[in-house]
Amino acid sequence: MAATLTDDEVGKTVVDAEQKELGIVAKVEDGRAYVDPNPSVAEHVMAAVGWEGEDEEDYLVTEDMIASVGDEIVLQGDL
């Protein structure tokens, strides 16, 4: 199931199918989430207030990689 990603996902935790935390969504653009694997306290606060940002360590998650979107984003187990 492909989920639709919006700016509302900024700041959400991303986990794998086994619930291991992978990072937080730093930015959403064109149906892709940029996930920060090592967010600082400042980056958590910026995401919480809706300020988007990305840097060179972020990795890309596309909608077809997602199992579900709720309070957190869960990736599919077969990636």
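The above is record 1. Record 2 follows with the same two-line structure.
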Amino acid sequence: MSWVPVAVSLGFAGLTVLACCSFKVFLGVRRFGRELERTKRRLGPKHAALRDELHDLPEPRAARSPGDGVPSV
């Protein structure tokens, strides 16, 4: 019967290790989320400027026929 307290103690120790690892993962995910938000705020104006430049580009020209251009060797 002495194996019951040992098994319970090992189970509790295992749950403690899992809880500690889960907490570290939680903190890492939170930190990563903050980093993504900060990057999004920094790139937002540049993204908007690039999008505006794309709207200002002229329309693409019509495709040329294969006979136009440099022949391949």
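Residues 35 and 59 are 37 Å apart (CA to CA).
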